[in-house]
Amino acid sequence: MTASRTPTTAEELRGVGLRVTAARVALLETVRNGDHLGVEAIASGVRDRVGHVSLQAVYEALHALTAAGLLRRIEPAGSPARFEGRVGDNHHHIVCRSCGAVADVDCAVGEAPCLSSSDDHGFAIDEAEVIFWGLCPDCTARSS
User: Could you tell me the CA-to-CA distances from 117 to 56, 90, 124 in Å, in that order?
Assistant: First the structure.
């Protein structure tokens, strides 16, 4: 019996047909090691790993990695886009109304889409995106 091994970031990039660059590897690893990061935080993390990289290059890489299914983009109302490395499942998010903290919330029921629409209007629904809103524990404590 052979032990299965996790593919390297470079292998993952090749596996989806993307060219492997130091910036793409750094970006993918930055997002996966972060927590629902915005573009500026991602760019800073990439620069810490590989030196100078333009914001335009970060946007282009984020687009390519999201289109390839290696990253997920979320856009809570009133917030800039954020990116996460948790892909391939139908999880949801909870967002703090005060500080903007974001956390993952597992799907309410089974597989995607975990919720049913009352009227699908003929659409073939394959995903449900839910954002729960409230105050995180730190903001709740400060408001008491």
Answer: 38, 15, 11
DSSP 8-state symbol, 7: P
What is the set of domains in the chain, with CATH numbers?
9-82 (1.10.10.10), 89-143 (3.30.1490.190)
Of 138, 137, 90, 95, which Cα lies nearest the Cα of 114?
90
Residue 76, CA distances (Å) to 62, 89, 127 in order: 17, 18, 16
Residue 118: both structure tokens together: 């009352």
Summarised one tens digit per residue, pLDDT across range 98-137 is 999 999 998 766 565 666 777 889 998 877 788 899 999 9
64 contact partners, CB below 8 Å, separation of at least 6? 18, 24
Query: Please, what is the Cα angle at 98 between 59 and 108, to 5 degrees?
Result: 75
DSSP, collapsed to helix, strand or coil, labels residue 140 as: helix
Q: What is the pLDDT of residue 44?
A: 97
Instruction: Report the mean per-residue pLDDT for the chain.
Output: 89
